[in-house]
């Protein structure tokens, strides 16, 4: 069967399986740093790339190759390149295509570490950067310059669930000869496929939804083969490669990705709607709510709201910390997309390195609490939060 004949749910389980002579049912784990040559001439041919094959696991490894090919199938991309972390994937996607003198436009509503990478490091290399509104496409258009090389965003945003119009921004980028790169980590390919909306690159932290059980770090960038091959050269040179063991864990994560995302999104929607009725909660942010101001756009881009919601309590940081400290079922940790529900305080953790001014400009307030909804019974998640909120 060709991959194009199979549904994504099937490809998540059966896509890109390679088979050794031992006819193993699960994907083999090639835990080896290098590969042997039949002869000196064979080694020369492999290094000259006149013969296809593996040489060294920083460059390529069969387990990693299976993982990146499987995610590429789910994203609707020709190819994928896996990296050690999601941040490595973002770094590789940016620095493969941006050089001194180029201009990058990016959303103000970025994950804190990504914002730190761009404003603290990428900015040191003579790359001009403009930060614009997550939701106002006209602001992106006004920021375009002759040297604009790339538009970068994540949608929905972390943790407020603000959505960028991927198709409109892809059209804008292409009209000006620029690339659109989308961090798809919040949704995963099970919920949103940015490449199908016109993006050139879809980037994911596989640490989140793809693993889904809080075990390993990983990242992957998918897109057209000519772009991904350029990124692969950077990943190899910079040593950002994904470890084979992590790729093997993440291949297993892909197999349950669709059912996990569907069940967790359903739990998240029900929890968001219940939180809206709680007197201590000022506002609930969730991309799956029917009254979300961008509900029509979300319906075009996403198959569900995803696993992450945020709530704002009155009383600022003290009140938010009181709620977080009181929960007993939810884990106090910054990961999301996990089968275990997690709770965190964006102001002092994920976005802690941003200035107060930048956080407020992005809509992150001291009273905001982020919850990633897992697979526990909804009654238990709700009761845990109800008891914590009752303290306010
Ligand atoms: C976690 C995260 C990343 C970084 O991924 P790591 O695997 O932790 O390096 C990037 N973007 C978003 C939106 C994230 O949530």
UniProtKB/TrEMBL annotation:
EC number(s) on file: 2.5.1.-
GO biological process, one term: homocysteine biosynthetic process
Enzyme superclass (EC): transferase
Cofactor: pyridoxal 5'-phosphate
Catalytic activity field: O-succinyl-L-homoserine + hydrogen sulfide = L-homocysteine + succinate
GO cellular component: cytoplasm
Pathway the protein takes part in: Amino-acid biosynthesis; L-methionine biosynthesis via de novo pathway; L-homocysteine from O-succinyl-L-homoserine: step 1/1
Matches recorded under Pfam families: Cys_Met_Meta_PP
Domain of life, source organism: Bacteria
Entry keywords, A to Z: Amino-acid biosynthesis, Methionine biosynthesis, Pyridoxal phosphate, Transferase
Keyword Transcription regulation: no
Residue positions where N6-(pyridoxal phosphate)lysine is found in the record: 208
Single GO term (MF): pyridoxal phosphate binding
UniProt-listed NCBIfam families: O_suc_HS_sulf (TIGR01325), PRK08133.1 (NF006003)
Subunit structure and binding partners: Homotetramer.
Assigned protein family: Belongs to the trans-sulfuration enzymes family. MetZ subfamily.
Role description: Catalyzes the formation of L-homocysteine from O-succinyl-L-homoserine (OSHS) and hydrogen sulfide.
UniProt name for this protein: O-succinylhomoserine sulfhydrylase
Gene: metZ
């Amino acid at each position: 069967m060709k991959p194009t004949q199979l549904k994504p749910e099937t490809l998540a389980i059966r896509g890109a399986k390679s088979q050794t002579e031992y006819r193993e049912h699960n994907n083999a784990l090639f835990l080896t740093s290098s590969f042997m040559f039949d002869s000196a001439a064979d080694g020369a041919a492999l290094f000259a790339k006149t013969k296809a094959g593996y040489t060294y696991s920083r460059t390529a490894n069969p387990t990693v190759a299976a993982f990146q090919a499987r995610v590429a199938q789910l994203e609707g991309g020709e190819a994928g390149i896996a990296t050690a972390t999601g941040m490595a994937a973002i770094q590789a996607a940016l620095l493969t295509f941006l050089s001194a003198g180029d201009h990058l436009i990016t959303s103000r509503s970025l994950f804190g570490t990504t914002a730190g990478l761009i404003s603290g490091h990428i900015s040191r290399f003579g790359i001009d950067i403009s930060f614009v509104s997550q939701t106002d496409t006209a602001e992106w258009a006004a920021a375009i310059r002759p040297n604009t090389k790339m538009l970068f965003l994540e949608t929905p945003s972390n943790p407020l669930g603000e959505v960028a119009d991927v198709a409109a921004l892809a059209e804008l980028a292409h009209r000006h000869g620029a690339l659109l790169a989308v961090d798809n980590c919040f949704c995963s390919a099970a919920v949103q496929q940015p490449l199908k909306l016109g993006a050139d690159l879809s980037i994911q932290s596989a640490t989140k939804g793809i693993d889904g059980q809080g075990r390993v770090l990983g990242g992957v960038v998918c897109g057209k083969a000519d772009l991904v091959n350029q990124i692969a050269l950077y990943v190899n040179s910079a040593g950002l490669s994904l470890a084979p063991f992590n790729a093997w864990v993440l291949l297993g994560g892909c197999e349950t990705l669709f059912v996990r995302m569907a069940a967790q999104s359903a739990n998240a929607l029900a929890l968001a709607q219940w939180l809206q009725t709680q007197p201590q909660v000022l506002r609930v942010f969730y991309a799956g709510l029917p009254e979300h101001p961008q509900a029509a756009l979300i319906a075009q881009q996403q198959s569900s709201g995803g696993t992450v919601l945020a709530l704002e309590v009155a009383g600022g940081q003290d009140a938010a910390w009181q709620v977080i400290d009181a929960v007993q079922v939810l884990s106090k940790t910054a990961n999301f997309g996990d089968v275990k529900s997690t709770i965190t305080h964006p102001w002092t953790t994920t976005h802690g390195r941003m200035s107060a001014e930048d956080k407020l400009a992005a809509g992150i307030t001291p009273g905001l609490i982020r919850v990633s909804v897992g697979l526990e019974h909804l009654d238990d998640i709700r009761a845990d939060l109800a008891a914590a909120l009752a303290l306010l």
